[in-house]
């Protein structure tokens, strides 16, 4: 269904709702495509995100990872437990924090997948010109800043 033909919401908030639904649908579609691709390596997009985040921030705390991914600590713990059993992540206690590191296997897998994954993201974004992607980034930053102000 075209987001523009969504008729359940009309009136003053219709544009906002249609815009929001459009963002959700595009995100879900891209996430579905990326997930399908990552299954070749036995990963979900959440697991790949953790590999990429921890790979770029070795020693990151579980708490910071949960904040970064906007997940509960419980969800992150379950995700990390699965990844630890897969041999991709190790946890080391440092005072009151559990620090995260990629294992050798996790580093190898990230190095193998990352270039392909970035290429797929570029393909997903290719309908937009460089200028349009820059505009989109600015608009998303504006929404994120307002959201952050409302929360904090």
UniProtKB/TrEMBL annotation:
Gene3D superfamilies: Winged helix-like DNA-binding domain superfamily/Winged helix DNA-binding domain. One of its GO terms (molecular function) is DNA-binding transcription factor activity. It comes from the Bacteria. PROSITE patterns: HTH_MARR_2. The keyword Transcription regulation applies. Transmembrane segments: none annotated. Residues 1-145 form the HTH marR-type domain. Keywords: DNA-binding, Transcription, Transcription regulation. Pfam families: MarR_2 (PF12802). Signal peptide: none annotated. InterPro entries: HTH_MarR-typ (IPR000835), WH-like_DNA-bd_sf (IPR036388), WH_DNA-bd_sf (IPR036390). PANTHER family: TRANSCRIPTIONAL REGULATOR, MARR, TRANSCRIPTIONAL REPRESSOR OF EMRAB OPERON. This is HTH marR-type domain-containing protein. It comes from uncultured Rubrobacteraceae bacterium.
């Amino acid at each position: 269904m075209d987001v523009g033909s969504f008729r359940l919401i009309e009136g003053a908030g219709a544009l906002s709702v249609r815009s929001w639904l459009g963002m959700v649908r595009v995100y879900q579609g891209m996430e579905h495509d990326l997930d399908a691709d990552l299954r070749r390596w036995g990963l979900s997009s959440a697991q790949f995100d953790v590999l990429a985040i921890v790979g770029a921030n070795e020693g990151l705390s579980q708490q910071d990872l949960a904040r970064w991914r906007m997940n509960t600590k419980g969800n992150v713990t379950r995700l990390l437990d699965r990844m630890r059993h897969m041999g991709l992540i190790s946890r080391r206690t440092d005072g009151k924090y559990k620090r995260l590191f990629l294992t050798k296997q996790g580093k190898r897998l990230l190095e193998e997948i990352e270039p392909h994954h970035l290429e797929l993201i570029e393909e997903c974004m290719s309908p937009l010109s460089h200028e349009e992607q820059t505009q989109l980034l600015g608009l998303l930053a504006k929404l994120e800043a307002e959201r952050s102000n409302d929360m904090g």
